[in-house]
Inverse folding.
């Protein structure tokens, strides 16, 4: 999935770079407040996707003595930074731009330039959104869209998907604002459109910050993974029961697993050791995202077994 994440981020970075340039040119020519807000949005997206690429590369660093579980959580950190930047620069500046023009609205010049730019921008954003959505769909398994976003463990895909979704909403709002402002000769509508774009970006930024914070603090693996672990253990005849199955994502595709198991009474220490080794191999083979397995073993008569 890391390769898919990088593809989606690169596609969004290229698209938003081209869009930002054309939007700023159009905003400078037409004086549209909504178009200027969209320009800010695209520029912030370029910075955000650059940060995500940096985070993805950092997350691939091998483990060290100081970081024995690797650097997978780096992408969670940079996703949280992206959410803060989207909130402060994307949503905040768009909101301020709309409020500033609200007190002194100006007519839009060369309105058709806005239409052309918005049209091309929507095409580019749709293409980047489609790439991200294809990668996102691989992890949804027909769950509800909002639930799928919440349970996703790869924030790079989620950031690109939500940013591009917000961008397309913003483009539609900007188009409506420019059209209505020109048709009714009411420049204030363009300013209101800019404020709406800012509010959309603020809402998406808060959502991203919440999801990134949860991953950064430490989220358990999804229920189906835990159920598969339980099935593997239940098929082991020498185990009476398992308990305290605890998991944590150390990165999008790196899971730490801890569990306690009770073995049948009178099993020898070598039998317990062999069983634990076999369980570790089977769990990692069936669930390759589980990179670390720690099993605390006890015999059913509660005497501590050797591990």
């Amino acid at each position: 999935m890391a390769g898919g994440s990088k593809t989606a981020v690169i596609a969004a970075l290229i698209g938003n770079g081209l869009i930002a340039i054309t939007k700023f040119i159009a905003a400078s020519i037409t004086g549209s407040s909504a178009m200027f807000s969209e320009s800010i949005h695209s520029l912030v997206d370029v910075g955000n996707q650059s940060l995500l690429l940096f985070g993805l590369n950092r997350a691939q660093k091998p483990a060290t003595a100081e970081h024995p579980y690797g650097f997978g959580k780096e992408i969670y950190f940079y996703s949280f930074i992206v959410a803060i930047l989207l909130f402060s620069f994307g949503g905040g500046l768009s909101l301020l731009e709309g409020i500033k023009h609200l007190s002194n609205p100006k007519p839009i010049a060369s309105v058709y330039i806005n239409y052309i730019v918005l049209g091309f921008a929507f095409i580019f954003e749709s293409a980047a959104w489609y790439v991200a959505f294809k990668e996102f769909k691989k992890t949804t398994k027909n769950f509800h869209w909002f639930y799928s976003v919440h349970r996703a463990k790869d924030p790079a895909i989620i950031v690109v998907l939500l940013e591009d979704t917000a961008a397309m909403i913003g483009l539609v709002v900007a188009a409506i604002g420019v059209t209505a402002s020109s048709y009714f000769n009411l420049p204030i509508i363009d300013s209101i459109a800019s404020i709406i774009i800012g509010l959309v970006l603020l809402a998406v930024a808060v959502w991203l910050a919440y999801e990134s914070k949860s991953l950064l603090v430490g989220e358990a693996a999804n229920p189906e993974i835990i159920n598969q672990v339980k099935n593997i253990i239940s098929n082991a005849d020498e185990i009476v029961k398992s308990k305290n199955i605890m998991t944590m994502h150390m990165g999008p595709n790196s899971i730490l697993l801890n569990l306690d198991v009770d073995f049948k009474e009178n099993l020898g220490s070598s039998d317990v050791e062999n069983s634990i080794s076999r369980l570790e191999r089977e769990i990692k083979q069936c669930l390759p995202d589980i990179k670390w397995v720690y099993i605390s073993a006890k015999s059913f008569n509660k005497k501590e077994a050797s591990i």
